Amino acid sequence: MMDYKAPLRDMRFLINEVLDYPAHYAALPNGAEATPDTVEAILEGAAVLCEQVLAPLNLSGDREGCRFENGEVTTPSGFKAAYQQFVEGGWQGLSFPEAYGGQGLPASISAFKSEMMGTANWSFAMYPGLSVGCINTIVQFGSVEQKAMYLPSLVSGEWTGTMCLTEPQCGTDLGQIQSKAEVDSDGTYRITGTKIFISAGEHDLTDNIIHVVLARVAGAPSGTRGISLFIVPKYLVSSDGAPGKRNAVTCGSIERKMGIRASATAVLNFDGATAFMIGAENKGLEAMFTFMNTARIGTAIQGVCHAEASFQRALQYASERRSMRALSGKKDPDFKADALIWHPDVRRMLLTQKAIAEGGRAMIYSVAKIADFLVNAVLDGDERKQKEQDSCLGFYTPILKGFLTEMGLEAANLGMQVYGGHGYIHEHGMEQIARDARISTLYEGTTGIQALDLLGRKVLLASKGKCVRDFTLTMVNFSKGRALRRDAIGMMARALLKRSVQWNVLTTRIMLRATKDREAVGSASVDYLMYSGFVMMAYFWALQADKASELLRTGKGRESDEFYRAKIQTAEFYFERLLPRAGAHYISATAPTSSVLGMDKAHFAFG
Amino acid sequence: MMDYKAPLRDMRFLINEVLDYPAHYAALPNGAEATPDTVEAILEGAAVLCEQVLAPLNLSGDREGCRFENGEVTTPSGFKAAYQQFVEGGWQGLSFPEAYGGQGLPASISAFKSEMMGTANWSFAMYPGLSVGCINTIVQFGSVEQKAMYLPSLVSGEWTGTMCLTEPQCGTDLGQIQSKAEVDSDGTYRITGTKIFISAGEHDLTDNIIHVVLARVAGAPSGTRGISLFIVPKYLVSSDGAPGKRNAVTCGSIERKMGIRASATAVLNFDGATAFMIGAENKGLEAMFTFMNTARIGTAIQGVCHAEASFQRALQYASERRSMRALSGKKDPDFKADALIWHPDVRRMLLTQKAIAEGGRAMIYSVAKIADFLVNAVLDGDERKQKEQDSCLGFYTPILKGFLTEMGLEAANLGMQVYGGHGYIHEHGMEQIARDARISTLYEGTTGIQALDLLGRKVLLASKGKCVRDFTLTMVNFSKGRALRRDAIGMMARALLKRSVQWNVLTTRIMLRATKDREAVGSASVDYLMYSGFVMMAYFWALQADKASELLRTGKGRESDEFYRAKIQTAEFYFERLLPRAGAHYISATAPTSSVLGMDKAHFAFG
Hints:
2 copies of one chain form a homodimer. By secondary structure, chain A is α+β, with helices and mostly antiparallel strands. Helix content of chain A is about 55%, strand content about 10%. Chain A has 4 domains: about 10-145, Acyl-CoA dehydrogenase/oxidase, N-terminal domain (Butyryl-Coa Dehydrogenase, subunit A, domain 1); about 160-285, Butyryl-CoA Dehydrogenase, subunit A, domain 2, CATH 2.40.110.20; about 290-445, Butyryl-CoA Dehydrogenase, subunit A, domain 3 (Up-down Bundle), CATH 1.20.140; about 465-595. Chain A has helices spanning about 10-20, 20-25, 35-55, 60-65, 80-90, 105-140, 145-155, 285-290, 290-320, 345-380, 385-420, 430-440, 445-460, 465-480, 490-515, 520-555, 560-580, 580-590, 595, and strands at about 65-70, 70-75, 160-165, 180-185, 190-200, 210-215, 230-235, 235, 245, 250-255, 265-275. In chain A, β1 (about 65-70) and β2 form a beta hairpin. The longest helix of chain A is centred in the middle third of the chain and has 37 residues, at about 345-380. In chain A, about 60% of the residues are buried. The mean pLDDT of chain A is about 95. Chains A and B meet through α9, α10, α11, α12 and α13 of A and α10, α11, α12, α13 and α14 of B. Chains A, B: Its cofactor is FAD. Chains A, B: Pfam families: Acyl-CoA_dh_1, Acyl-CoA_dh_C, Acyl-CoA_dh_M, Acyl-CoA_dh_N.
């Protein structure tokens, strides 16, 4: 029941046919090793790990959860052995520099792997997943000594890392951080404070955990400009690289959560813990933001993961479970009732899931190319290029993170719906997917925060709408040669042309309103984000359908005709059944700001 | 944190001002006792029970869950004492006939009570809630002896009842039922079979449990026409009315569920259990459907309950928690950051919750009037009137059940979103609301089933669109005198006029298509249901806003001006921000059926 089958055929279609990764890698300085054969071997190897090792631990991991006792966290049965296999396979180091023991492959390859791991077992994937931010931070800002001391064990996966930002009084608003760092005579620091919601903050998978911590040096300016970044190892590392003395950072408890219950979410108490500053004093937040775009895309993947996981199981159930007769006549006359999949509304739900999973995958894989450029720029220390790529990625990030996690949650809920009452029962695993998916719109910046980032910062402030004009130009260029076609591609092209104009009109309307009304951005932002997501996904569906149509015509595709036809059909479904929602978001985004701001805050309820 | 405050002011506004229940009760044969003073006393008494007894057990009930051991179920701490208070208060009998120990008040009064109980603690409310179906069945179909034997203890609440329909192989498709009933020499039956998902199927709150069970008499026709209805008491009742010998119905296990964890969902094994037929042989399903409309409205209330519960807590949190500064400038300059409620997107979420809770309440309370007529017709044994009222109620039922539970789930999820990461943590109770709400779109007929019932049965088959024409005529009559007004009411009236036409056009389009394409209904149904829900709720918001506007003008209202202004503002929000979604559902409902049916069932995925 809890089987997971890596969607390799869809992945290959995107990697090789739609997005032409072979050409992308060939042009990338660190892409020479990423030959089609290597990529294929990695995909297949990761699929085996995910299907055979990680997926079987997903349901039991949720049922057992993590245990907390005397400051120590025990992960669910089987996690430790599975993590060992993960380390032995060298999976953590795939895209990290060879200088630190990694394989130096492009970052996108890790995204393919992460999608499979996250679909098989999101909670498990979080342990190595959190290391990525820690490693990236040390790679970019660490001293030569810090790199030598921490990176090899982190890159191999022998140790994991964390990012310690949130405190009880603040999550989004990091300017309110209170953790204090006092400098010692030897130049190290002593950190005191409490951090909460620290994923992988404590566990039994590795001998050491390296925390990257935001804190204020005594006397630092208040607010965001007085925050520095520190390395705080659980065990201080001796000169030979082995974990030594236990540091004064302890796990006070782990949270009882709705989902991702096999992932330990720790309260960490720093009681004068020895800390090493990383990067420049008081520049901690800026450093933290360097990899925020890539971290958020890492979370956007979660939308695809849960949509895919829920779709796979719902499809299987819909094919096997029988209920009622189809309104259009018996379909399985040899049985007492027809399989669920014959019922049109069940198909609507399955196709919605499929459209979200495969459409989201196309968005992620496309944007992963930009991440390749960005990561390389960081590794080269090329600041100009880094800014360029980061600003390019920055437009996609909030759309992917906000839209795909919202849609992933919808897909997960539809999967439960296909199961009927059985979807609500633990043993089928469908409700777990919905619970696990629920975190994705909350952490790494809520949907509301993504929306403000998109509309306020990326679209209006940073580019005055240029990023939308650029993206819609891509849509127009794709569509103009195809709009007169009398087939499905023509229909999609015409819809894209209409949405290209509309997206720019929407942006301009809000921009104009924002000059007169400072609430214009905040009261339109989430609808604007969802609008953008629906339109952007439409483009990526058209792209897939168009490639499928071309390969059907030329016969040069590697997949079967049925595969390509199903792609076109799913794209049509998307345009006819999901894209129309963009219209509703358009109307809401242009509604008067007074409809959200007119009410006095004392009048929301009358007790 | 887990406080619940009964929304008495909103309830009174609907009961006394918008829907004029005093006049409704005055005209009702059993309404004489339901004077405004009595109704007020009941509301206040129920509020005390819900706020002080039931709400404090909600979070702990979820954490503890029900325990199953040796065939027995232990409810969470405090449930037994609370249930005792419920029984002592005579709350179960409010609307049941005085002949059986009830108070004989109109059914709607129980709906007001049920809303409060369900909001305070849905899991608890399910124990007495499930009795209602059992009692109604015995009232309508029981013999004089059966009524005398079971009803007094059920009506007092000393016993509870269940409805045993679902079996492992079938839920919706009851024609597949396999449980067998064999007649004994004394005219009683022996039932053998397994029933699953039996809410309140086993528990420790009462001395006896009366199961109403669907089963097949040996030799009965196959399918739906061979199913009969039986009473199977947990303890056989002796002639003095006391529970006697243990019957052969045992609880095999209880389900591990996503939510409503304090409500025991039992697997019941009938091993030749002594059973008493109720109603006519092979007419069990028809009997079961008599009260289906009222039962489904009982579940529709759940949407309102979870929206209200989540809204109350989210509002409190948004007023207290501080994060960031408002984009339009500092709002709480004495603090480090502004309260969440100053941020427009947080307001959008709160207003969405409020619009769903109060709009849904208006829909339920309005339709509860029809339930009053229906229940009275049943009690009078007036079949013609009963059919008339049932068919009237039947149009509203799937809309209320389907639409309000979907929207209640959305509201519950928005409440988590207001809390940010804290929404995901058990102790705040927000994730519990979302988990509890999740069952509501699944049981008592999934949203998909409601949609088929609405579009296929109620709108097309039974009335050829007349029920839509009737309802939209009400909308038109309301709107036509108001459409020229230059205020908010005028805007709403014009929107309603437009939607009146559109709803009929949509219905006609699908009706025409259905004559040629038998998949037309199934592939449009859920979008049609959601469309209907959004438009119907718009009417009920306009009704509230109009009454508020009138009372503001005349000064004759019992509430404050602020209360009435907030009503109008919430209605405006609904029309500007939520109603536009109807447009997207319209487009999807009219999309070609090929977009869901074109794909071969083998091509949904390529492993």
